[in-house]
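[job 0412] stage=fold_complex status=start
inputs:
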Amino acid sequence: MGRVRLIDVAELAGVSMKTVSNVVHDYPHVAPALRTRVQAAIDDLGYRPNLTARRLATGRTGMIALAIPEIDHPYFSELSRRIAEEATRRGYRVLIEQTLSDTVAEHAVLKDREAGLVDGVIFHPVRMDAIELATVHKDTPLVLLGEAAIPSTTDHVMIDNVAAAKEAAQHLLALGRRRIAFLGVVDGDITVSTNRRLVGYQQALVEAGIELDPDLVLTVRDFSPESCADATRAALARGLRFDGVLCRDDKFALGALQGLHRSGLAVPEDVAVIGWDDTALASYTLPTLTSIAPDKPRLAKVTLDLLEERMNGHQGVGRHRLVPHSLTFRESAPELPR
Amino acid sequence: MGRVRLIDVAELAGVSMKTVSNVVHDYPHVAPALRTRVQAAIDDLGYRPNLTARRLATGRTGMIALAIPEIDHPYFSELSRRIAEEATRRGYRVLIEQTLSDTVAEHAVLKDREAGLVDGVIFHPVRMDAIELATVHKDTPLVLLGEAAIPSTTDHVMIDNVAAAKEAAQHLLALGRRRIAFLGVVDGDITVSTNRRLVGYQQALVEAGIELDPDLVLTVRDFSPESCADATRAALARGLRFDGVLCRDDKFALGALQGLHRSGLAVPEDVAVIGWDDTALASYTLPTLTSIAPDKPRLAKVTLDLLEERMNGHQGVGRHRLVPHSLTFRESAPELPR
DNA sequence: CAGAAAGTTTACAGCGCTGTACATTGGCCC
DNA sequence: GGGCCAATGTACAGCGCTGTAAACTTTCTG
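[job 0412] stage=fold_complex status=done
writing structure:
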């Protein structure tokens, strides 16, 4: 336990508490002799500043909350890591909060700031929409991620989903595929992300002069790879034919790979597959998975840039940043030879 | 910002701060009339207690640290989720800390408690050994996970690695496999976990009257699936033959699946594969992966039981708990028909 | 109905730190 | 030598909350 207090050090060194504090904080105007004496006392006693007291006195916590749907989803765990590392670099700690896509939990997210637990919040909402967010969020430094809610009043970072989906579909087209499926729309739970990606997919096809076939937009039961595998097999079983699949995320793509394999189709020979998020999963599969790759380090950097400005008092309308993306080519939809 | 303070509520309601505090804490002996009046004032003003101040006054933070090597490793992110959920159930929040298997970072883990950031620490060490831990850890409530360091003085939770490895190997034997490889030993970085698992593997073979072949213990470059795939292919290429592989974790197993596939071998027909940790990965692969499954909910529960007792002042020697494990059967090493 | 017991409320001293205001010292310039 | 400024150090009032002790009320008991 941090039994040793500032005043204990001060007494041992024969100085005031404030001087010890100054030494701890590397305040420049401390006489060298004194500094060493105080430092010796600190080391002697094994003094550690009590962060709670410091926080109360300063009003700053040095912590930021990261609220995500699930910590054990590959994309979010990779994102968490990036953000935690970027935050550490800037002297903050990250408190990860799981919402489990639950409305109540999402509403609770912003309370943390009110309770003085954190200085700012990074929030990837699923349920809350722009209006709810705009009303709840008053003066909490907040940066939103994802596409679910984009209130104009709040800072927000994402990739250009439409463009990314379009580029992926265009790559499939460039590979000579003409019957391209989209996997998938979760039954009764169509998210904004899915929507944007679907739009990009459609744009690519239309611009290539291909008629849209609604049957090629597959519907799945839920967000599990299993349901995607089932949907893929079911589609093939009822006679639907396609030679390319654009998936809304890597887990969906794994489901597609399983479904195709079990239906006796070869990837990429018979069907090319593209995933989304470029998580570690993409290199673990058979065949390895071509995937849309958001620039995660950049995402972390931009997000923290915005948040830090807000925490430093920046006021004003919401800033909206697009972060670059690219296509990471692997076996399931190989790069074009040139 | 939580501008509203306890005293503001008190003044509005015309009572003392302490009475408001009592209402906030549901202290039973508050006159009903007063309680409603105070509650109204709280609601009116939108009062939220300042947790930092509370912590300073009580000396409790309500937080526990979870220090793990990597947040984006599937096993650790699943573990984090379990532990966070169990902790939430008990009224704690979890502060996740990445050590990246770095010695310095591991040593820093215990400082958090000293700084009063958390009430207790759950720590999965990689580098620190029992002796270091025993000396550093004085009176911080601490529970260790994993097999790296087991100082007798500290509470510790793990599964029986030797037994689990033995059972897995025995399952491969029961499937009629006789040439069983172990994947693998990381070159120059053999961990205690790997060692325990290797021992169990060897016990099973010896008890089955099979002579140990050191060549069957494969060496890999690092902890990536890629290096495991390479090691598998290289082994096959140099003429090594085997019909079963026991892997030290699921990521290694994914590498094995890739390597076997690329070498033209079928799983499980030619070679049966068993992974370790039963992470989500295991159901995503082709074929799906049989894996040793630690009872993660139980692990979380036991860990928090121990930690809570320590945080409540329990003294005494380290308690060492084994948590149950089982084998989750999937395609790569199917369950025996009966 | 006195006295004890239980219920209810308050005042206030910290928790350990930092920010501010202020005191002291020494160096430098004319 | 006086005056001024920068450097150095200190005292102390909070930050917002809770625990303790004590005051005051009401209820119960014989």
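[job 0412] summary: Residues 2, 5-7, 17-18, 21, 25, 49-58 of chain A lie near DNA strand C (CB under 10 Å from a C1').
[job 0412] exit 0
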